[in-house]
Amino acid sequence: MDSSNYNGAGSYGSRTISAIYHIAGYEKTSDAEVLHHKKIMKMAEDSPELFDGTLLRVTDDCIGCGICESVCPNGKYSLSEGKATRKEGPCDYCQACAQNCPQKAIIPGKTDKNPKARFRNPQISLQEIMEVNNSHK
């Protein structure tokens, strides 16, 4: 990679990003896509917990019901040995997993004033959330 395009803030110039996309087989990269990529890279640098799986964590209270697996739009949960495990990778922090966990076993990785507080939109059922997520798989 051409280090002359590196801007020192964790990202490369738009020429280099365009070249990477071109090599990867993308037809053309718009300026908006390059800007979006730069924002994502900056976000990953500033808030690694959004990507490394530590933003939300599963406690020992987990009973392995699998609701988190069903409601996560990014498929970041799986069941292993009767417990939910959080996979690494980007998290939208929608908190569907935490808000719908019946045991309140998924909590923020950072200190929260009330980690057991939950909100569920009364207009949207758990079944609707799961159906929408399954329609995208």
What does the overall shape look like?
globular
CATH overall fold name of the largest domain: Alpha-Beta Plaits
**Widest beta sheet: strand line-up:** 1-4
The total of helices stands at: 6
Task: Calculate the mean pLDDT score and round it.
Answer: 75
Structure described in brief:
The chain is an alpha+beta fold. It is 36% helix and 10% strand.
Write up this protein.
- The strands form 2 sheets. A two-stranded antiparallel ribbon has the order 1-4.
- The longest helix has 16 residues, at 31-46.
- It folds into 2 domains: 3-46, no CATH class; 51-135, Alpha-Beta Plaits.
- The protein is built from 6 helices and 4 strands.
- The protein is globular.
- With 137 residues, it is α+β, with helices and mostly antiparallel strands.
Topology, element by element:
Layout: H1 14-23, H2 31-46, H3 49-52, E1 56-58, H4 67-71, E2 77-80, E3 83-86, H5 96-100, E4 106-108, H6 126-135
Antiparallel strand pairs: 1-4, 2-3
Attribute tags:
single chain; 137 residues; alpha+beta; 2 domains; two-stranded antiparallel ribbon; 10% strand
